[in-house]
Write a structure and sequence with these properties.
about 0% strand; mainly alpha
């Protein structure tokens, strides 16, 4: 049976929310109570991903786009999406009878983190252009 609160096909079911809820950071205690639940914010993010609309074009029955963007960016910065993806991937693998994948060694993780930095990409791009131009000049045109 479908959740009566489920408005869009991209909305989380109760079973999906039960899996994801423990992985989402909780609100800090000495603060203002949340106006929108984390589930509503996730539903808005999943709506956006599924429909392909722009942030500012989120329907009015979902939380405001600026708030949704804030949570999306904050969770991205703090690695919540990566942890969520890893946990769900591991659960699917275990359910299918496969082993849980081994974690990368710390040196490999550090190298991957270094390779993904924007500064490294910029230097690699500059070096590639230099190498391409050097190759071009050394090609005989006879």
């Amino acid at each position: 049976m479908q959740n009566p609160e489920q408005v869009y096909p991209s909305d989380l079911t109760d079973e999906e929310w039960a899996l994801i809820d423990p992985l989402i950071p909780k609100a800090r205690e000495p603060g203002r109570p949340e106006k929108y639940s984390k589930r509503a914010i996730l539903n808005a993010i999943f709506y956006l991903v599924r429909s392909g609309c722009a942030w500012r074009m989120l329907p009015h029955d979902l939380p405001p786009w600026k708030l949704v963007w804030h949570y999306f960016a904050h969770w991205k910065k703090h690695g919540v999406w990566t942890r969520l993806n890893d946990a769900l991937r591991d659960a699917v693998r275990l359910k299918a009878g496969k082993k849980k994948p081994q974690r990368l060694r710390s040196s490999t993780r550090k190298a991957c983190a270094q390779l993904s930095k924007e500064e490294f990409a910029a230097t690699m791009l500059a070096k590639r252009w230099q190498d391409e131009s050097a190759t071009c000049w050394s090609t005989p045109w006879d």
